[in-house]
Write a structure and sequence with these properties.
single chain, 232 residues, mainly alpha, two-stranded antiparallel ribbon, 6 helices, 2 strands, rod-shaped
Length: 232
């Protein structure tokens, strides 16, 4: 099947959103525990929450909070850096699979019961993260393909699109700019560009209209008639 960059970018973005949601809901679980709300989110990272509960029950709450914070910071760093490198998504997926295996062990020891639903949700979350790893690897593999690169970062829909990295994330401060007209450097002679003129058909010059004046016969001075003289 041909590589579909748009589909892979959407799947990778969905996996990163899943990872961030797991972190947020895990923090919510810890807060709900200390506030005695009696609410527990199944869609979470289970190990930090269990560490807090066990440490608090044993009277060593600061240790549980420290373990919880360290694990959550790791997942938060993986979410942040996975925008530029899918290896961090692989690390987060591996850690969550380990968390799911731990939950399965606890569920098997306790006879499953209500933990079976939490286990199923954990499996689905791990599947989302693994899917992100697969699509991230595809994006990395096909990043150097000229045919794929030609589809992105070029002129599209009459707008200049920001340059994108391997995982479809816009690169900060890098944008395609329209070609600027030539600007001569200081001290270089440059002829001023004449404005473009449109074609105009030739029209003969129009002479100013004059009123017709009939020719006037010059007047001769009056002469008296003289009869001819004899002998002439």
């Amino acid at each position: 099947m041909a590589f579909d960059r748009t589909r892979s970018e959407a799947a990778y973005k969905s996996s990163r959103i899943t990872l961030l949601t797991l972190i947020i809901l895990t923090v919510a679980n810890v807060l709900f525990y200390f506030l005695s709300f009696g609410i527990e989110m199944l869609f979470c990272i289970d190990f930090p929450y269990v560490a807090v509960v066990i440490a608090d029950t044993a009277g060593n709450t600061p240790l549980g909070i420290a373990i919880c914070a360290a694990v959550l910071l790791f997942f938060l760093a993986a979410w942040h850096f996975s925008a530029k490198n899918h290896v961090w998504m692989i690390a987060a997926a591996a850690a969550h699979v380990l968390d799911t295996a731990t939950l399965f062990y606890l569920a098997s020891v306790s006879g499953f019961g209500d933990l079976i639903f939490a286990f199923i949700v954990h499996v689905l979350a791990s599947a989302y993260l693994i899917s992100g790893c697969v699509h991230g690897a595809k994006l990395k593999k096909n990043a150097s393909d000229p045919a794929i690169a030609a589809q992105f970062g070029a002129w599209q829909s009459g707008q200049f699109l920001p340059q994108r990295d391997v995982y479809g994330q816009p690169q900060q401060g890098q944008y395609y700019q329209p070609q600027q007209p030539y600007q001569p450097q200081q001290g270089q002679y440059c002829q001023p560009q004449q404005p473009q003129q449109t074609y105009q058909p030739y029209q003969p010059p129009v002479q100013p209209q004059q009123n017709y004046q009939p020719p006037v016969r010059p007047q001769q001075p009056d002469q008296q008639y003289r009869p001819p003289q004899e002998g002439n």
